[in-house]
Amino acid sequence: MTTTAQPLTRPRGESAPPGGRRSLRRTTEARWGLLMIAPLGLGLAVFYLWPMLQTFYFGFTAWGPFGDSTWTGLDNYLRLLADEKVWAALRNSLAYTGLVLLGVPLALVFAVLLDQRKLRGRGLFRTLYFLPVVTMPSAVALLWQYLYNGDFGLVNQALATVGVAGPSWASDPGTAMFALAAVGVWMGFGYNLVILMAGLQTVPRQLYEAAAIDGAGTVRQFVSVTVPMISPTVFFVSVITIINGLQMFDLVYLMMPPGSPALPATQTVVHLFYQKSFVQNDPGYGAAIAVLLFAVIGLLTVLQFRLQRRWVHRG
Amino acid sequence: MAGRLSCLIAGALVTALAGCGGSGSSDSAGPVEITYGIWDVDQQPALEQVAAAFTKANPGIKIKIQTTGWDDYWAKLKAAATGGVAPDVFWMNGSNIKLYASNGMLLPLTDKRDLSVYPKALVDLYTYEGTTYGLPKDFDTIGLWYNKKLFDAAGVKYPDASWTWADVQSAAKKLTKADGSVYGIAAALNNQAGFYNTIAQAGGYVLSPDGTKSGYDQPATIEGIRFWTDLVKNGVSPTQQQMTDTEPTVMFESGKVAMYYGGSWYAGRFNKNPSTKDTVDVAPLPAGKTKAVVTHGVANVVSAKSAHQEAATKFVDFLGGKEAADIVGKAGSVIPAYSGTQQAWIDAAPQFKLKIFIDQLDVSFPWPGSKNTPAWMDEEMPVLAKAWTGEVTPEQAAATLAATMNSALGAER
Questions:
Q1: How many CB atoms are located within 10 Å of the residue B213 CB?
Q2: Are the Cβ atoms of B372 and A65 closer than 8 angstroms?
Q3: Interface contact A281-B240, CB threshold 8 A
Q4: Chain A partners of B374 at a C-beta cutoff of 8 Å?
Q5: Which residues of chain B have a CB within 8 Å of the CB of A250?
Q6: Packing angle between helix B394-412 and helix B373-388, nearest 10 degrees?
Q7: A4: which residues sit within 8 A by CB, 6+ positions away?
Q8: B240 to chain A nearest CA, in Å?
């Protein structure tokens, strides 16, 4: 389950190999090509494909504590269907993903602002926005835990100056998911911003000039030129954001201790998977949960590729 | 974002593989090397001394200490044990002993030994189906830590051995300030330092004595939980949300709560912290229907797959002896289990009444454990948190927990 997506533009005009001498050269070339990608391919096969296949297999087994597994057929999946915790975790994961997806339009607006040539210190802003991406998640989680602290947190201290008594943001079941998603948006913001800015730079300037001549203002230019022209980039960013969102683990693990009243409201599928597999010594059931998540991510991604035909502009 | 998890797993695998080189050749003629797996780097220097003393007495046997941090220790050990390459001697705890013993991973220590030198609760903890599998190394018990300054300011008498639950409740009420700046007690949601003790004090139990059924549906067990939830409900403790945001230990250290049920392991920390060094002290746990305190401790065990079982057993006996206990006690980080060697630990922080931790062994009971303890113990916190916040009653939480626990125990067989 890596975060790979299909390339958005495929080289066109690649025709079938013609016969004769060229085909021989092509075969040699192909051999060399295979040899070149072998290290990566082997790595993928050993560390991704093989474990994936094994996960599918182990989903149908029960594990003894010291590695011996026995075939139990559909037991894990039947248990999964009846397990309220699994569905709660899936709802939490979807809610989290939906919330972090709201960060995409926000990143788009900021990307356009940072793309303005008139803006001074663009490089500084870009660096600042990108910093959270390269910061260790554990440091990020710790920092935000302090900010969200109900008694001493900076957020509530700021609210107190305007006479509002804030809740314990990260440990109140009513606010915790929003608190978590805010950190998620903050962490992923810089990455989305960089990709979207790269997309903006591919939009031909003439289009804006033409639009300006037609009398379009800044907002109209944004809606009618920018948005359709970089919709393929927005699509890419959305796909990655959804996949990353559904794989959410570290922030929950770090910010929601086992006794947190907010844990049931924020426990994600991957956190539940971790708990079952590695804490409660039930890797067979954990594998079944992982397969469920795989199916959900696969389904949503296919759905997005179907739906994109309606809104993604292809020049 | 899933990166951390995969790193965790990869890390465990890599260390497990790296550990494979450890114990190999079974050459009885030449010098033998025994590997010793531990998780606490703070205790390593003292144990190096113990190892040196052992090698001096047994010149043919060398000891190699392998320290793995707590976070990876069990994952790595399980992988190594599965592959038959666990260290010859390693640390065991109460949650895992039955898992390892019942799967034949540990060498039974069947020779005649004087086990009366160790606390009985600990000997019982490391006995599975009548056979001893580990010799106790150290132990801990729980005490009622209190802030003398806050007690003086509120004019409340310090806790002592005569205290009962009612004394805790009334003192907590008097110590709590209306403006929320001081709470009488931190009703921390914690099994070892909290509700396991009060459950036993109320006459209940977590795990039935035969280890097959949950005790959470027993009325007495529920009383032991209600002791804590009432303290929160009556406003004499911070709420569960406050205690999630800020650790109760930190609240106690900063003088925001006056009483705190905490383990003997806090002696070192409170002794080092200038804000607690001279302002806090400790008393025995107050009695409910009876006096009771949970005790837990680490034991040294021998791997059943060890290539040098004889030498490894010799080393475990040495670790379990008085000489080793004296060295460990002097280092001061844990209380040695061997009877009569604890004075050095007590003397390390003479201003605290640390002797109560050792005296309470008389009313101690062992840490509950089954073959797959984490399967049900891991469910305690999230379920009970709902009773702590008042979302459900203690009865409802206990009923949920009993059902979960019984099905987990059923899956063990």
A1: 17
A2: yes
A3: no
A4: 279-281
A5: 1-5
A6: 170
A7: none
A8: 7
What is the nearest CA distance from B304 to chain A, expressed in angstroms? 14
Cβ within 8 Å of residue A255, ≥6 positions away: A141, A144, A145, A170, A180, A183
Burial (CB < 10 A; 0-12, 13-18, 19+), residue A15, is exposed
β-pairing verdict for B127-128 and B131-132: antiparallel
Measured distance between the N- and C-terminal CA atoms of chain B, rounded to whole angstroms? 37
Which neighbouring-strand residues pair with B135? Answer: B300
In angstroms, the CA A288 to CA A294 distance is 10
Instruction: Give the residue carrying structure tokens 């114990």.
Output: B23
Contact across the interface for B5 and A66, Cβ inside 8 Å: no
DSSP A67: S
Separation between Cα atoms, residue B405 and residue A239, nearest integer Å: 40
Beta-carbon contacts below 8 Å between A and B = 107
Tokens of B221: 């067990």
- What lies within 8 Å, CB to CB, of B287 at 6+ separation is B163, B164, B165, B201
Contact A65 B381 (CB under 8 A): no
**Letter for the amino acid at A219?**
V
CB B409 within 8 A of CB B212: yes
**ipTM confidence:** 0.83
How far, in Å, CA of A270 to CA of A249, rounded? 6
φ, ψ for residue A60, nearest 5 deg? -100, 15
Which residues share a beta bridge with B280?
B147
Rg of the Cα atoms in chain B: 22
> Measured between alpha carbons, how far is B267 from B281 in angstroms, rounded to an integer?
9
List the alpha helices (DSSP H) in chain A.
Answer: 21-44, 50-58, 75-82, 84-101, 103-114, 122-130, 137-148, 154-161, 176-200, 205-213, 218-221, 227-229, 231-246, 250-255, 263-266, 269-274, 283-311
Question: Residue type at A123?
Answer: G
In angstroms, the separation between the Cα of residue A274 and the nearest Cα of chain B is 8
Token pair belonging to B7: 């790193």
CA distance A206 to chain B (A): 39
Non-local (6+) Cβ contacts of B293 within 8 A are B141, B142, B197, B200, B284, B285, B360, B363, B364, B365
pLDDT by residue for chain B (413 residues), tens only, comes to 344 444 444 444 444 433 333 343 444 456 899 999 999 988 999 999 999 999 999 999 999 999 998 878 988 998 899 889 999 999 999 999 999 999 999 999 988 889 999 999 999 999 999 999 999 999 999 999 999 999 999 999 999 999 999 999 999 999 999 998 999 999 999 999 999 999 999 999 999 988 899 999 999 999 999 999 999 999 999 999 999 999 999 999 999 999 999 999 999 899 999 999 999 999 999 999 999 999 999 999 999 999 999 999 999 999 999 999 999 888 878 999 999 999 989 998 999 999 999 999 999 999 999 999 999 999 999 999 999 999 999 999 999 999 999 999 998 87
The b-or-e profile of B362-395 (16+ CB within 10 A means b, else e) is ebbbbbbbbbbbbbbbbbbbbbbbbbbbeebebe
Query: A145, A168, A251: which to substitute to probe chain B, counting the most B Cβ within 10 Å?
Result: A168
For B158, how many CA atoms within 13 A lie in the half-sphere containing its CB?
Answer: 15
B191, amino acid identity: N
The model carries a pTM of: 0.85
Contacts with A133 from chain B: Cβ below 8 Å:
none
Contacts with B63 (C-beta within 8 Å, 6 or more apart), sequence order: B33, B34, B35, B36, B51, B54, B55, B315
Q: Which of A138, A244, A280 sits opposite B378 (nearest CB)?
A: A280
